[in-house]
Amino acid sequence: MSGELPAPDYGQIAAVIPAAGIGKRMQSEIPKQYLQLHGKTILEHSANVLLQLPVSLVIALSAEDAYFSTTPLATNPDVQTVIGGAERAYSVLAALKHLDAKQFPWVLVHDAARPLVQLRDIQQLIQQCWQSGQGGILACPVRDTMKRGQLRVEQTVERASLWHALTPQLFPTETLRQALSQALSAGITITDEASAMEWAGQPVQLIEGRSDNIKVTQPEDLALAGFYLESRA
């Protein structure tokens, strides 16, 4: 039908999960991405959602990783691995260097510790970025009153234009690779892919996602993630 917008070509999209971290705040003997959640590791939950899409998946692992080989992901033909770095940005960059940007001109980057992302949110992100030709991130509007300060309140921050950055984040592969590489070389602190793209002057769209797409960072987050999974079941 005339006027319809083109559907995304998933064959041109790769996915990356940086999973080389150790997650010290979880106070666990093993990296948080390998903690069990309803019979699977957190990493498996996070990866399995991406694997529902017809995309290639690259997971960046620590050189000392002793756990990945024990998961079903290790024998999945749709999963490749690379050696990551001490920080997230270096792990993502290692995965991007592994990818052929001509074959995969777009790349989704998803946190290893976000096991609750829903497929329809990812599809909405891809659809909007594909149609606009610009990168974007899943995000959730801030609902709480925001304060700035250290131990004492210095200022109440207007929340109307504030968003919680989520993942996945979707960007042109080569543009993201260059932005990350140049930002790291310049000593810029990179907290997510969007921050590198912002620093490079590239547009970043905000696509609203579900607020239960939480990142498992603290011990109490694991219990909350389990509750959400039970609710869905």
From TrEMBL:
Family annotation (Pfam families): IspD (PF01128)
Catalytic reaction equation(s): 2-C-methyl-D-erythritol 4-phosphate + CTP + H(+) = 4-CDP-2-C-methyl-D-erythritol + diphosphate
Site entry: Transition state stabilizer: R25, K32
Swiss-Prot/TrEMBL keywords: Isoprene biosynthesis, Nucleotidyltransferase, Transferase
Keyword tRNA processing (UniProt): no
Pathway: Isoprenoid biosynthesis; isopentenyl diphosphate biosynthesis via DXP pathway; isopentenyl diphosphate from 1-deoxy-D-xylulose 5-phosphate: step 2/6
Keyword Nucleotidyltransferase in record: yes
One MF term in the entry's GO annotations: 2-C-methyl-D-erythritol 4-phosphate cytidylyltransferase activity
InterPro entries: IspD (IPR001228), IspD/TarI (IPR034683), IspD/TarI_cytidylyltransf_bact (IPR050088), ISPD_synthase_CS (IPR018294), Nucleotide-diphossugar_trans (IPR029044)
E.C. code: 2.7.7.60
Site feature Positions MEP for the nucleophilic attack, where: R159, K215
Function: Catalyzes the formation of 4-diphosphocytidyl-2-C-methyl-D-erythritol from CTP and 2-C-methyl-D-erythritol 4-phosphate (MEP).
Family (UniProt): Belongs to the IspD/TarI cytidylyltransferase family. IspD subfamily.
Protein name: 2-C-methyl-D-erythritol 4-phosphate cytidylyltransferase
